[in-house]
Design a protein that fits this description.
Blueprint (H helix, E strand, L loop, with lengths): L2 H38 L9 H14 L6 H19 L3 E5 L5 H10 L4 E5 L2 H9 L5 E8 L3 E2 L1 H9 L3 E9 L3 E4 L9 E5 H6 L1 H7 L4 E5 L2 H9 L4 E5 L1 H6 L4 E3 L9 E8 L9 E8 L6 H11 L4 E8 L7 E8 L5 H13 L2 E9 L4
Parallel strand pairs: 1-2, 1-3, 7-8, 7-9
Antiparallel strand pairs: 3-4, 3-11, 5-11, 6-9, 6-10, 12-14, 12-15, 13-14
The structure holds prephenic acid.
The site of prephenic acid (PRE) has 11 residues, from α1, α2 and α3.
Subcellular location: Cytoplasm
Catalytic activity: prephenate + H(+) = 3-phenylpyruvate + CO2 + H2O; chorismate = prephenate
Pfam family, one: CM_2
Length: 360
């Protein structure tokens, strides 16, 4: 490529950037008009609209002809909306910390970077912060494809008045990060209990003699390992980078397709978007065919169940409650009718929230 050609292309890029600059600011102005109208109607709580954001992203993905991928378009426009929203007031989002956890990554993926983030110690603390109004939204892990359900989150959902307002799925890549120069120097390996479990085979093969120490998060593991040259952490890229810990071996998780699902917690369910999910918890007294009978209305209305999980009931020994995820919104006519019929049969039916399906 000659210097002249390069200069000509760069001049074109500058022109496009100028147009983009004008357009994103024009868009921010329009979003501010919407916010002003909401404020005039006293609907300040409505500034963040997850259903509208899902619609914006889905429409753009459908229109996208490349060369950027749908994932790139989603990421870019999420950040644009995040910045537009922060012009009014940055959202306060609590998540399972400390900084550098996968939950933080999930929170940023869902809300964009223009938020006021509040890393907290423990799932319970995240629930409490949103319940008390200290944060408007919270993000907690709920399910890992290798390790199964995060039972603490399920149990807390049962007792909380919060609603699930969104879901985020994140591929989980675990790394061995350490200041040691060779594997035999490592005598201790820190991680969250889920991180250790997700890399069990790798550890048995490559570091069978090292002591495995479960700590409160993979970020905390990286912090501890950064202070001890005989230690390593199993942690994310973000956590290793945050504590300046070199990655000795990348991507050591046993399942190639290791991913975690996170829930976004808030106070009110978003309105239907046409592509939604509903989560609920149900129970019926223990008798033969009890669960099958309880679920019969779902089959009758042709509703799709994507998850069924049992947990011991807080009410009594050998009693169970069932966590269910369904396709559809609780306000969709068929789902509404089915839920009404299930309510008649159940000793407990609590809707945990209807929310747009994740847009990745
Ligand atoms: O459409 C709205 O209700 C807006 O407030 C605008 C907008 C946007 O930037 O597109 C901003 C924030 C909301 O979360 C959803 C959408």
């Amino acid at each position: 490529m000659t210097d002249e050609t390069l200069q000509a292309i760069r001049a074109r890029i500058d022109e496009i950037d100028d147009a983009l600059l004008r357009l994103v600011n024009e868009r921010a102005g329009a979003a501010a008009e919407v916010a002003a109208a909401k404020e005039a109607e006293g609907r300040q709580a409505d500034f963040y609209r997850p259903a509208r954001e899902a619609e914006v992203l889905r429409r753009l993905r459908d229109a996208n002809e490349g060369p950027l991928s749908d994932e790139d378009i989603t990421r870019l426009f999420r950040e644009v909306m995040s910045a537009c929203l922060a012009l009014q007031r940055p959202l306060r989002v609590a998540f399972l910390g400390p900084e550098g956890t996968f939950t933080q990554e999930a929170a940023l993926k869902h809300f964009g970077h223009a938020i006021h983030s509040q890393p907290l110690q423990g799932i319970d603390a995240v629930f409490r912060e949103v319940e008390s109004g200290g944060a408007e939204y919270g993000v907690v892990p709920v399910e890992n494809s290798t390790e199964g359900m995060v039972t603490h989150t399920l149990d807390r959902l049962l007792s909380s008045s919060l609603q699930i307002v969104g879901e985020v799925e994140l591929p989980i890549v675990q790394n061995l990060a350490t200041n040691a120069t060779a594997l035999p120097e490592i005598t201790r390996i820190y991680s969250h209990q889920q991180g250790l479990a997700q890399c069990r085979l790798w550890l048995e093969t490559h570091a069978p003699a090292a002591e495995r120490i479960a700590v409160s998060s993979t970020a905390e593991a990286a912090r501890l390992a950064s202070e001890d040259s005989q230690a390593a952490a199993i942690a994310s890229d973000a956590a290793a980078e945050r504590y300046g810990l070199p990655i000795h071996q990348a991507s050591i998780q046993d399942g190639a397709a290791n991913s975690t699902r996170f829930l976004v917690l808030g106070h009110e369910s978003p309105e239907p978007t046409g592509e939604d999910k509903t989560s609920l918890v149900i129970a019926r007294e223990n008798r033969p065919g009890g669960l099958a009978g309880l679920l019969a209305p779902l089959a009758r209305y042709g509703l799709n169940m994507t998850r069924l999980e049992s947990r011991p009931s807080p009410e009594g020994m050998w009693e169970y409650v069932f966590f269910i995820d369904l396709m559809g919104h609780a306000e969709d006519p068929d789902l509404k009718r089915a839920l009404g019929e299930m309510q008649q049969l159940a000793s407990l039916l609590k809707t945990l929230g209807s929310y747009p399906r994740s847009v990745d």
